[in-house]
Structure formats: structure tokens, C-alpha cells
């Protein structure tokens, strides 16, 4: 269900009860500005986000190399060339 900000303010209790069924979207001038979700869903999202931020860059590159190997994809790297440097 979607709400306008003023409706959400006036019917806050109803909004909170509706969250138990599905996330509630709040709009300002037809633009989505907020989504109210269950606390459990938010906690799961925060755990996922924390796990993603702790993933080292090296691990991400290792996963990328593995995907390239599985798909038999090779990344073509162009030859290096010097460019003019206005600061030199």
C-alpha cells in the first residue's frame, strides 16, 4: 500500500499495523521518499549489508575471476599508451 506523507502522519497507527502484511511506501508529490518495513526485515537487511561491507576487495576479484573462468570469458586489456599530461 502507498501513503502520502500527510496521510501517514494522520493514520500512523494504521500504517504500523499494515506493515505486518507488507512494506508501506510513503510518497511526497508522487516521489517515493520512505518505506516502512517490519523490524525483522530491517534487521536482516542490516546483517546482509554488514556482511557485504566486510567482504575484502580481493575476495570480490576472486569471485570475478571464477565467474570469468566458468563462462570462458577473457577480459581484453588494451596496450598501455601515454597521454599528454598538462601538469607535467
TrEMBL record:
**Its job:** Antitoxin component of a type II toxin-antitoxin (TA) system.
Please give the name of this protein. Answer: Antitoxin
Q: Which InterPro entries match?
A: Antitoxin_Phd/YefM (IPR006442), YefM-like_sf (IPR036165)
Q: Name one Pfam family in it.
A: PhdYeFM_antitox
Give the signal sequence positions: none
Protein family per UniProt: Belongs to the phD/YefM antitoxin family.
Task: Enumerate the transmembrane spans.
Answer: none
Amino acid at each position: 500500500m502507498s501513503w502520502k506523507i500527510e496521510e501517514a502522519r494522520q493514520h500512523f497507527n494504521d500504517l504500523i499495523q499494515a506493515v505486518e502484511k507488507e512494506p508501506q511506501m510513503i510518497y511526497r508529490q508522487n516521489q517515493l521518499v520512505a518505506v516502512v518495513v517490519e523490524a525483522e526485515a530491517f534487521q536482516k537487511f542490516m546483517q546482509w549489508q554488514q556482511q557485504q561491507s566486510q567482504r575484502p576487495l580481493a575476495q570480490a576479484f576472486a569471485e570475478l575471476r571464477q565467474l570469468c573462468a566458468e563462462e570462458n570469458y577473457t577480459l581484453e586489456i588494451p596496450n598501455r599508451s601515454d597521454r599528454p599530461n598538462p601538469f607535467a
